[in-house]
Design brief:
There is one protein chain. By secondary structure, the chain is α/β, with parallel strands linked by helices. It folds into three domains: 62 residues, Alpha-Beta Plaits; 292 residues, Peptidase S8/S53 domain (Rossmann fold, 3-Layer(aba) Sandwich); 63 residues, Type 1 dockerin domain. Helices cover 27% and strands 17% of the residues. The protein has 14 helices and 17 strands. It has a seven-stranded parallel β-sheet, sandwiched between helices. A four-stranded mixed β-sheet has the order 7-1-17-16. β9, α5 and β10 form a beta-alpha-beta unit. The protein is globular.
C-alpha cells in the first residue's frame, strides 16, 4: 500500500488533486460474483448445473473459479449456500483488493531525477543495510521473490533480474510490464494513479537483495484495481513458478477462505510472505493476508526516518514489525525514479531481507526465517509510547537479520549467541582446522563475526559486541 510522489527523468503529464482508491472497501462492484475452490477431481460443469452459475475466469491448476451468480443467489449468501457441498473446499464472494492511499494525501508528478537519492537515501542507514562484501554469501543469489502487484517495467537498475514464468492476470497474458495507458479508466479524476507501483516494489527488493530474481505477477491494473480472485491466482502462480519469497503490497478487508488456503499452501511450500499492513491508520478491520497472523507471514507497518509510526500506517497485535515507509525513493516505470510513502514500501524492504536470509540459510523453514528476522529487529518502543504491542517486534535491521541467518556469533551452533560460544570461538581462532571437526554443523560464517571471510583477531571486537548486545 503506497502513496506515491512520482519523480521521473522524463516529462509526463502532471496531475494534481485528491487521491482516491479504485473503489471503496465497503462498495464491492462484484455483487453478482462468487469465488469457489473445488475439491480435486470435482468438475466445474457439475457445479454450474447445481447452482446455475457460469465461469468468468479460473485458475484451473488449483480448481479455483470466479463465477457469475444467478439472480436467485446474492453474493453474501453464496458461501453459506455451498457450505455443505462435498465437492467444495472453499467459497466466498469476490471482494476488492486495494492499495489505499493515506487519508488526506494527494498524488503529484514531479519532473526531476532523484537517482542519487535512491542510492543514498536515509532509509538504508536506518535499517542498517550492509554492503554486499561483508555479506557476500547472503546477497539473495539463487532466491526468487514474487512481486504480486502491477507488474514490473524494464529499468536499468533491474536489468538481469527477471525470473521466468511471470504472468498478467489483468489481461490474461504473459506481458507483465508495469505501464500507464494515460486514461482515467475508473473515472475517479486521476489517471494511472498506480502505474509504477510494482516497479517501485521490485526496485526496493533488489536494492536490499541485489542478486535476487524478481518474478513479476500482474494482478493490479494501472488504476489500482484488483480483486480476491486475482490475488489468489497470483499467489498460487508464484508457488507454481518457484518463488521463495512473496511480496504482497496490497490487501483486502475480507478474510477470504480461498485466500487463506492460498497463503497456507505457500507456507506449506516453505515460502515466506511479506505483506503490507495497510494505510488506513487503524488496527481494525485488518487487511489480509497481513491480518491472518500466521507463522511465515510478516505483517509490516511503516515508520518515518525517526522510527515513529507513520500517521497513515495500520497497527495492531497482528503487526510483526515495522519498516521505513515515508518518502522512500525507488525505480519507476518511465526509467526514472519515484518517491512515495506507504506500508507498500516497507514490505519489499522486508522481502529483500528475507531473500538474503533464504540465500544464507536455504534449508530454513519459513517460520524459522520469520523468527530470526523478528529477533533481529531494533526496539522502537521509546519512539512510540502510545502503541505498546501494536507495532510488532521492532524496526527492521537487515545486517542483524542476515547475520542471524548466517549464524554469526553462534560459534557452537546451538541457536544462541552466548558465553557458551567463547570456547568454540577460541578454537576457531587458534586451531581453525579443528573447528569444523568439533562443530560439524557449523560454517565459517559462524566464527567470522566481522564478515571479512576469515577468522582472525579482528573478529574479537564484533564477537564481544554480539555478546554484550545480545
Amino acid at each position: 500500500m503506497i502513496y506515491r510522489r512520482l519523480v521521473g527523468a522524463t516529462v509526463v503529464l502532471g496531475l494534481f488533486g485528491a487521491a482516491s482508491p479504485a473503489w471503496a472497501d465497503e462498495d464491492s462492484p462484484f455483487e453478482s460474483e462468487g469465488l469457489v475452490q473445488l475439491a480435486p477431481g470435482a468438475n466445474i460443469a457439475d457445479f454450474h448445473t447445481r447452482y446455475g452459475t457460469t465461469t468468468i475466469e479460473s485458475y484451473a491448476a488449483q480448481n479455483i473459479y470466479r463465477v457469475a451468480l444467478p439472480p436467485t443467489i446474492p453474493a453474501d449468501t453464496f458461501e453459506a449456500l455451498v457450505a455443505t457441498d462435498a465437492e467444495v473446499l472453499h467459497a466466498d464472494r469476490v471482494f476488492p483488493v486495494l492499495d489505499t492511499n493515506p487519508v488526506g494525501s494527494s498524488q503529484s508528478f514531479f519532473f526531476f531525477d532523484v537517482g542519487q537519492r535512491f542510492a543514498d537515501q536515509p532509509a538504508w542507514g536506518q535499517i542498517d543495510l550492509p554492503d554486499v562484501a561483508p555479506h557476500a554469501s547472503a546477497t539473495g543469489a539463487g532466491v526468487t521473490v514474487a512481486v504480486v502487484d502491477t507488474g514490473v517495467a524494464p529499468h536499468p537498475f533491474l536489468a538481469g533480474s527477471a525470473a521466468p514464468g511471470g504472468f498478467n492476470f489483468v489481461e490474461r497474458n504473459a506481458n507483465t510490464n508495469d505501464f500507464a495507458d494515460t486514461l482515467d479508466n475508473n473515472q475517479n479524476g486521476v489517471a494511472d494513479e498506480y502505474a509504477g507501483h510494482g516497479t517501485m516494489v521490485a526496485g526496493l527488493v533488489r536494492r536490499v537483495a541485489p542478486q535476487s530474481s524478481i518474478l513479476a505477477i500482474r494482478v493490479m491494473d494501472d488504476e489500482g484495481r484488483c480483486d480476491t480472485f486475482k490475488l489468489v491466482a497470483g499467489i498460487h502462480h508464484a508457488i507454481d513458478n518457484g518463488a521463495d519469497v512473496i511480496n504482497l503490497s496490497l490487501g483486502t478487508i475480507d478474510p477470504s477462505d480461498v485466500l487463506l488456503a492460498a497463503v497456507n499452501r505457500a507456507l506449506a511450500s516453505e515460502i515466506v510472505i511479506a505483506a503490507a499492513a495497510g494505510n488506513d491508520d487503524r488496527p481494525d478491520p485488518r487487511r489480509y493476508p497481513a491480518g491472518f497472523n500466521l507463522p511465515g507471514v510478516l505483517a509490516i507497518a511503516a515508520c518515518d526516518e525517526f522510527d515513529v509510526r507513520a500517521p497513515f500506517s495500520n497497527y495492531g497485535p497482528h503487526v510483526d514489525l515495522i519498516a521505513p515507509g515515508v518518502e522512500i525513493t525507488s525505480t519507476l516505470y518511465n526509467l526514472g525514479f519515484g518517491r512515495g510513502s506507504g506500508t507498500s514500501l516497507g514490505a519489499p524492504l522486508v522481502a529483500g531481507t528475507l531473500a538474503r536470509m533464504r540465500g544464507a540459510r536455504p534449508g530454513a523453514t519459513s517460520t524459522d526465517l520469520r523468527d530470526l528476522l523478528l529477533a533481529s529487529t531494533d526496539s522502537i518502543a521509546a519512539q512510540n509510547p502510545s502503541y505498546p504491542g501494536q507495532l510488532g517486534a521492532g524496526r527492521l535491521n537487515v545486517a542483524r537479520a542476515v547475520d542471524a541467518a548466517l549464524g554469526r556469533g553462534d560459534m557452537d551452533c546451538d541457536g544462541f549467541v552466548s558465553v557458551a560460544d567463547i570456547g568454540a570461538f577460541v578454537l576457531a581462532l587458534t586451531e581453525p582446522a579443528q573447528y569444523p571437526v568439533a562443530f560439524p554443523q557449523c560454517r565459517i560464517e559462524h566464527a567470522d563475526t566481522n564478515g571479512d571471510g576469515v577468522v582472525t583477531v579482528g573478529d574479537v571486537g564484533t564477537f564481544v559486541g554480539m555478546l554484550v548486545g545480545g
